[in-house]
Design a protein that fits this description.
Layout (H helix, E strand, L loop, with lengths): L7 E5 L4 H12 L3 E6 L2 H10 L4 E5 L7 H12 L4 E4 L12 H28 L3 E7 L12 H23 L3 E9 L18 H13 L4 E4 L3 H10 L2 H7 L1
Parallel strand pairs: 1-2, 1-4, 2-3, 4-5, 5-6, 6-7
Helix pairs in contact: 1-6, 4-5
Bound molecules: NADP nicotinamide-adenine-dinucleotide phosphate.
Length: 244
């Protein structure tokens, strides 16, 4: 065990994008951060930015040894206060490619559920306190034709988190659940022509950090995406099905 007192933060999927930005934010504010991902070189360069505050664990959330890796992280940082899942993929699948669907389901549903299930049970077994955060998406609100598995996987994530939020309240545990729903953020994942209201990674990171610290349940990043979520939720099928 390397560290004793600071807040202990685990970020699953911190090699790039929003996860990497959150790792920097938490490390620069004094937390001990365990950063994960599949790309060892990017984990190494992140660790070199904060060698006394960041430890790393290289693994694929679709693999068979997730629990072993999570336990290894606990051994390195000596506890857990905040568990953030940023690992996710978004594959455009205009021709409904079967392999794209399989990868999306393995990562965004099976990998996600295994991570979150482990963290929730960890907090229950260690006093019933802690916070779990996931980066879902505005896409969770309705189906879409360009990446059906992606929007379905994000719906799974947000609905699963709502269930855990209700479970924690019902059992009177102090476990806080935070469901982050970004619109477009300028990461590798979101490159393409039809983007609008694109937030920088830095701006998204700041808004996500503030939402986590305020212990919010559901937050749109950036804030104006709340309007799109509202429109998606209430648009009648005969209208939505022409554009989605
Ligand atoms: N960017 C947007 O516009 C946008 C909008 C809405 C929601 N989101 C969501 O935000 C989350 C973060 O994405 P991002 O935009 O920051 O993109 P990103 O830069 O591609 O980050 C994705 C992260 O997930 C990790 N990851 C992916 N598959 C993994 C696997 N099988 N095992 C372990 N780690 C894995 C990647 O690490 P490795 O590749 O090193 O494994 C990387 O660190 C995703 O869930 C995405 O769906 C993004």
């Amino acid at each position: 065990m390397l560290f004793m007192k600071s807040q202990k933060v685990v970020i699953i999927g911190a090699t790039s994008g929003m996860g990497r930005e959150l790792a920097r934010i938490y490390a620069s504010r004094g937390s001990i951060v365990a950063a994960t991902g599949r790309r060892q070189d990017l984990l190494y360069s992140l660790r070199m930015e904060f060698p006394n505050r960041i430890v790393t664990e290289c693994f694929d959330v679709t693999g068979n040894s997730n629990i072993g890796h999570l336990e290894s992280i606990l051994g390195k940082i000596g506890g857990l206060d905040l568990f953030i899942v940023c690992a996710g993929i978004g594959i455009v699948s205009e021709n409904l490619d079967r392999e794209a669907d399989r990868k999306t389901i393995d990562t965004n549903i099976n990998g996600f559920a295994e991570m979150i299930n482990w963290a929730f049970n960890y907090f229950v077994e260690h006093g019933g306190n802690g916070q779990i955060v996931n980066i879902s998406s505005i896409a969770s609100w309705r189906g879409n034709s360009w990446a059906p598995a992606y929007s379905a996987s994000k719906a799974f994530q947000s609905v699963y988190l709502e269930g855990l939020h209700m479970k924690a309240r019902k059992m009177k545990w102090g476990i806080v659940i935070t469901d982050i729903q970004p619109g477009f953020v300028n990461t590798n994942m979101s490159q393409g022509n039809k983007r609008f209201w694109v937030a920088s990674v830095e701006k998204a990171g700041r808004q996500i950090y503030r939402a986590i610290e305020a212990k919010r349940f559901r937050v749109f990043v950036t804030k104006r995406w709340r309007m799109i979520a509202w429109a998606m939720k209430w648009a009648p099928g005969f209208l939505y099905h022409r554009v989605g």
